[in-house]
Amino acid sequence: MAGISLKGLRKSYGTAHVIKGVDIEIEEGEFCVFVGPSGCGKSTLLRMIAGLEDISGGDLTIDAKRVNDLPPSERGVAMVFQSYAIFPHMTVRENVAFGLTIAGASKEEKEAKVAEAARILQMEHLLDRRPSQLSGGQRQRVAIGRAIVRKPKVFLFDEPLSNLDAALRMDMRMEIGKLHHQLGATMIYVTHDQVEAMTLADKIVVLKEGRVMQIGAPMELYHNPANLFVAGFLGAPSMNFLEVTVQGVTGDKALVSSPVLAPIEVSAKRGPFAPGARAILGLRPQYLSVAEGGQLSGKVALTERLGSETVLDIETADGKSLVAALAQDAVFPIGTPVTLRFDAEKAHLFQPEETASQPH
Amino acid sequence: MASKFTRSNRTGFLMAGPAVFLIGCFVILPFLFAIAFSFTNQRLMSPNPTEWVGLSNYEALLGLGTLTLEPEKDATGAVVMEDGEPKFPATRSFTRGNPDYPQLAGMREWFSFDHGGSRTFVLARDVVFMTAVVNTFLFVIIVAPVQAGIALGLALLINQRLRGINVFRAIYFMPVVVSIVVVSLLWRLIYDGQSGLLNNLLSAVSFGMIPQIDWLGNPDTALGAIIGMSIWQAVGFHMVIWLSGLQTISPTLYEAAAIEGASKTQVFRYITWPGLRNTAVLILIVITMQAFGLFAQIDVMTNGGPLDSTQTIVFQAVERGYVKKDISGGSAISVVLFVIVLSISLIQRWLTREKS
């Protein structure tokens, strides 16, 4: 088990710069999730750590040792692939023991380690089957089994659950979480699914176009996003963004307003904001409630009742759309005029020049 | 009133019709004719009516016999020596009009071996055909593994991402596109005994130490020369089949192996080779079948000679059927070849079956 440090890591294919200087510190035993939209470089970054991609610049250290130029097998990492990458002509037992076979381990050692891995992953009954006789979830277990027999310092997961159906994905997600507690190993996990990121991670790294947008604990990122991209990327339904004008600044507070929003004073810590300038006000749908005399008003355009919550799509007077997630199972006929209230403490004010990405 | 099902069936049959007709005319009918002719005395052109002769064509082809003889002894009981070797009675005296050995009548010596002072002669009714069978098997046994192996090696080489790799792919594939007759003509020049390319090349690299060899004119080298040229000609074809097999192996398997620390040989042993299993079966069967059909090279380069050292089964079938106008004899050879190839393919299928 070991800590990993990425310092100014870069990757270029010719003139195309895919990873543009990434700095991340991952503590020993930490579960770190790289998350971001497709093409943000998260898988490339993982493959650079694994040694499957060359590093164009910067330093990668595992366990305080620079490993930039070491082949994958000498970095002490194990990897679980999205496509499982289990060998189709070998039984589960042979697959799990593959790394040991390569290293020339004795038969007894292989037996013992395979048995232990099978016990941890509860797949003793699958050991003599062939991959073609396994379901997707079982195959993923085999791939994880192959990773754990070698007792690597670091586990790398490359979107391991993307090929599974929704129910299985949730089960396996929990399994991986438990596995982390059981093994206590350092794990790096790549996903585009924010739910996986939020539930599994000790530390989330949000990436966009080869750059780190923010690093932090899941709740820190959720409650205190550093920029519009992180704010829009995490949370479902995603955050509402309102264009506002700054009326005045006092200390770390700013007074903002818009044609649909009465003046309100919010935190201006992502400043500086100048009076008269444009800004973006971010409001999580969960912190909007339907109440008399709220700060925002509009008409219900769509109601989605999910059981645990009701999602309202509200059209404001200037034709923009706002989403509110209400905890109660309420019925609002389409066209009903409503006013929405929010707590100024829970609102986030962002600089407008930060380009808001399309939340997925 | 026809239902929709039968109507659409009729369209299907109509579309398949031309192909079925052509295959019937030129593959299935000749195949059946060959089997039928092989039991008759049919000739290509003959005023006599065709007669049913049963298995006599096969007997004439495959008839074998053995004869064990003691060396000749003189009046004192000592073995008669001739050129330093014991003298044996002529086999002729047993195979020509000897009423004590009717089963050997008309046979000729194929080969012989000594044991404990006596000598056993293996006699064949058709020695040339036996030579052809041996040559063909020799050809197959050498060409199948060597050609498959070289093709796999080339496929592994050209399966890399390198600049200009397509040029190499094209070069290796080129001989396949050229007609075998043209290739054979060119190689006749290469193998020429006086000023052939191969002789010049060998003499240049050995500074004249290697003498000029008439590759196709020498019974010891002729078959080898044809084997070498045949391997070169078709290796590109099998290389492409191997390549397609290689490219079906998922690159993540190689990445997984790299992370586990597998060496190049381990990667080949545990990932590449098992992944090529089906391709290997296909290639083995295809090469075997093609090799058994060896004809064009022989026809162009040696005509079966010198001294029958390059006779092959198909060459014999054509020679007998069309040159000697003995269609029934030629048909019998084709049927024998068919049985041989079929049995070998079935054995290969069985040996390489998926063991579960």
From TrEMBL, chain A:
It comes from the Bacteria. One of its GO terms (cellular component) is maltose transport complex. The keyword Metal-binding does not apply. SUPFAM superfamilies: MOP-like (SSF50331), P-loop containing nucleoside triphosphate hydrolases (SSF52540). CDD domains: ABC_MalK_N. InterPro entries: AAA+_ATPase, ABC_transporter-like_ATP-bd, ABC_transporter-like_CS, ABC_transpr_MalK-like, ABC_transpr_MalK/UgpC-like, Mo/tungstate-bd_C_term_dom, NA-bd_OB-fold, P-loop_NTPase. SMART domains: AAA. Residues 4-234 form the ABC transporter domain. This is Sn-glycerol-3-phosphate ABC transporter ATP-binding protein UgpC. Belongs to the ABC transporter superfamily. One of its GO terms (molecular function) is ATP hydrolysis activity. The lineage of its organism: Bacteria, Pseudomonadati, Pseudomonadota, Alphaproteobacteria, Rhodobacterales. It comes from Stagnihabitans tardus. Keywords: ATP-binding, Nucleotide-binding, Transport.
TrEMBL record, chain B:
PROSITE patterns: ABC_TM1, PROKAR_LIPOPROTEIN. One of its GO terms (biological process) is transmembrane transport. Residues 133-348 form the ABC transmembrane type-1 domain. It is found in: Cell membrane. Keywords: Cell membrane, Membrane, Transmembrane, Transmembrane helix, Transport. It is a multi-pass membrane protein. InterPro entries: ABC_transporter_permease, MetI-like, MetI-like_sf. Its main location: membrane. The chain crosses the membrane at residues 12-39, 137-158, 170-190, 222-243, 279-298, 327-347. GO terms for cellular component: plasma membrane. Belongs to the binding-protein-dependent transport system permease family. This is ABC transporter permease subunit. It comes from Stagnihabitans tardus.
